[in-house]
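Hi there. Long-time user, first ticket. I'm pasting a complex I've been working with (about 529 residues overall). I'd like to know whether the download I got is complete or cut off, because the file seemed smaller than I expected. Thanks.
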Amino acid sequence: QAPTPTKWNKRNLSWRVRTFPRDSPLGRDTVRALMHYALKVWSDITPLNFHEVAGSTADIQIDFSKADHNDPYPFDGPGGTVAHAFFPGDHRIAGDTHFDDDESWTFRSSDAHSMDLFAVAIHEFGHAIGLSHVAAASSIMQPYYQGPVGDPLHYGLPYEDRVRIWQLYGVRESVSPTAQPDTPEPGEPPLLPEPTNNQSNSPPRKDVPHRCSSHFDAVAQIRGEAFFFKGRYFWRLTRDRHLVSLQPAQIHRFWRGLPLHLDSVDAVYERSSDHRIIFFKGDRYWVFKDTNVEEGYPRPISDFGLPPGGVDAAFSWAHNDKTYFFKDQLYWRYDEHMRRMDPGHPAPSPPWRGIPSTLDDAMHWSDGAAYFFRGKEYWKVLDSELVAAPEYPQSTARDWLVCKDLQADSEATGMDGEAGAHPQSGQHDQSRSEDGYEVCSCTS
Amino acid sequence: APALRAEDLSLGVDWLSRFGYLPPADPETGQLQTQEELSKAIATMQRFGGLEATGILDEATLELMKTPRCSLPDLSPAVRARRRR
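Hi, the file is complete. Here it is re-exported in full:
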């Protein structure tokens, strides 16, 4: 057995798919989803946290390359070597993971000659966080490709792999190393399933909101993606409006630097002038560069010329490159370049007609339209128009958060379950049906 | 055992070097390895791959060498040196 390689000293690792497979039936979103779940296999049981980023400084850069691609491990066409990853360290390529673009990368394929991307990705990410090859046949770190490993949401690492990664990073809080003392059987429940309503070995997350019955504290377009914030959590949608996960992510684990006691945010927007991301809560605001807070924050919102009392909504309108703040029935128009409020503000009613007089939040979207959110509904104002489109308001849960009307209705009245698929009144273990739905979502 | 074909031996030596079972080929002597060293490397590879450790480059071993796999070596130079000591 090779000696234990280096490990990451930090616990928050960023990742990014830099290049995608060229001739693969797998779409980009599917590739990203499979990478997400392959990393999650490791982060579920260790204190490591993985965050997808858009920039070029990701710790784990993922590429699909052919033949010689400027590292010591050239690929060799179909078969042979299929992927590799670099161990942790300070060097530039540490953590980087390369897949042979000449392989037939698939997911859930019945073709015996295809290469299951999820299975290979788990193995390679094991290297990327410090594991070397082992001889144990049941280990995911065995060097030979042994076929698909099953559903990403129900995959549990073999015991020897769990022990080896725990030796490097320790056990994630909420995971009991003795909970599964032996090699899991195929089909065994995932090691760290999402908490169910009535049984879980992880700490209860009673404050986790449900996306289908929530109205949101804040909504923002950040780096082209949509973020829906509620309490201490947020949901994220890709540029093509695919929900990254049905389960919300914790704000503090992604947006690093917000105070841990912060239990919600009031408004969020991406500043057009420098693409910093601004979070508002009460009389204070924070400025983020990517996912890290900048030094010197929080600052008082009076920096913007806003009065005490906070804001309900904030968004940057691409049409005139101005930032709008809303509080109760007043709004302000802010010039980011001049760094001052435009004269005549606050004003009693915003320039858009047909939207509610008070807002939860608003955002500009890549279709050119502005979207205004209030309660469980949203209004769309087409590019450069000043009146909400006639068919609005519509359901935010249905149109953005992958919910069905029936589900939203049933859950609002306390019924559990993914009602659109399997309405079962009184069923408490909702994660099963929801997980099943989630797989469909991420591979579509 | 049936006589090994030259290309199989070549493939085997190349494979064993690539994945850490044999030291990289000496640029001055090419890929010459002693029979004992080669046999030990094959046995280690067989053990690692779940085969019977015969030290002989047989069909099963060649088949395993053709199995799709990760590019990273199974043994690092440090481990190999320790084993030799």
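A couple of notes from our side: The radius of gyration of chain B is 12 Å. The mean pLDDT of chain B is 82.
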